[in-house]
Amino acid sequence: MTVRRAEVDAQGIVFNAHYLMYADTAVMAYWRALGVPYASAMRRLGTELPVRKAAVEYFASARPDDRLRIGVRLVRVGRTSVTLEAAMRREHTVLARAEVVYVCVDAARRVPTPVPVVLRGLLERFESDGAACRLETGDWARLQADAQPLRREVFVVEQGVPEHEEWDGADATAVHAVVYNGLGQGIATGRLLQHAPGVGRIGRMAVDHGVRGGGHGAQVLDGLIAAARARGDREVVLNAQQSAIGFYRGRGFAPYGEPFDEVGIPHQSMRLVL
User: Fold this and answer.
1) Alpha-carbon distance 123 to 75, whole Å?
2) How far is Cα 191 from Cα 147, in angstroms, rounded to an integer?
3) pLDDT truncated to tens, each residue of the chain (274 aa)?
4) Cα-flanking dihedrals φ and ψ of residue 226, to 5°?
5) How far apart are CA 238 and CA 247, in angstroms?
6) Residues near 92 by Cβ (< 8 Å), separated by ≥ 6?
7) C-alpha span between 23 and 2 (Å, rounded)
8) Which of 228, 236, 227, 223 lies closest to 269, judged by CA?
9) pTM of the predicted model, to two decimals?
10) Are 90 and 67 in contact (CB under 8 A)?
11) Residues 238 and 253: beta-carbon distance below 8 Å
C-alpha cells in the first residue's frame, strides 16, 4: 500500500489509528487468497466474525508516499475465536504489528458459537501448505450448476450483458473449468472451445467479485491452457476485455488485430502459442 497524504497527522507521520485500517485491508486480501468471498461465505456458514479485540504495537513511523508491505498470518484458531496478526514494514524496517481477535458468533442469535469445522480446516490447511482452492474441469452437465450463477452475476448483473447473449449452444461442447474454495463454493470459471483445427478459444472468464485479485482467475486460465495443450492444440486465442489485457499479458498472451467492441465492452484479441 502507498501512504496517502490524508493519512498523515500534524507531526508529518501516519496517524496511529490508520495502522488498523492497513491491517484490516490486508486481512481482506488474506480472505481473497483463501478464495473466500466473506459475505456469501458467512451466510453459507450461518456465522459472523466481528472483532473482539485489536492491539497495535508501534516501532517506527510511516510517512507520505511510503510503500508499505503488509503480511498476515494466522496465530491461532480457538474454540470460538480466530486470531490474525499483521506486520507492516517499509523495505526492511518493521513499522508496526497488529493482532486482531475475531469472535465467531451465530448470525441469527448474535451469541458466541464454535468456529465451524470446515472453516477451521480451511484456515489451518492454508497456513500449512498454501492450498486453499481446487480446480475442476469437465463438461457443462457436470459444472453448470456452479459455473452458470457465476457467469450470470459477473456478466449479466455486474456488466449489463443481455441475458440472451450470455448463453449459447457452445456451452454443450466446451471444456469448462471451475475453481472451488474450501467451503465448496464455486468462485471462478471459464470455458475452452475448439476455434479451429489445432486452435483453442478461451472465453467466459468470470471471478466472484469478493475474491478478485486472489489468483483464482489465473488458476482457471492455466487449467484451460493445460486442457488445450493436452488435446493437441498449437495455440489458444481469446478476446480480452480492455481492463484485463495486463492480466493476460502476464500469462504470456500477445495482442493481435485492432481493438473492437463486443456487447458494448471494449475488447482486444490475444493469442498464446503453445
Assistant:
1) 10
2) 10
3) 999 999 999 999 999 999 999 999 999 999 999 999 999 999 999 999 999 999 999 999 999 999 999 999 999 999 999 999 999 999 999 999 999 999 999 999 999 999 999 999 999 999 988 778 999 999 999 999 999 999 999 999 999 999 999 999 999 999 999 999 999 999 999 999 999 999 999 999 999 999 999 999 999 999 999 999 999 999 999 999 999 999 999 999 999 999 999 888 999 999 999 9
4) -65, -40
5) 13
6) none
7) 13
8) 236
9) 0.89
10) yes
11) yes
* Grid cell listed for 245: 489485457
The residue type at 26: A
| Distance in angstroms (rounded) separating the CA atoms of residues 237 and 225 | 10
Rounded Cα distance between 173 and 71, Å, is 43
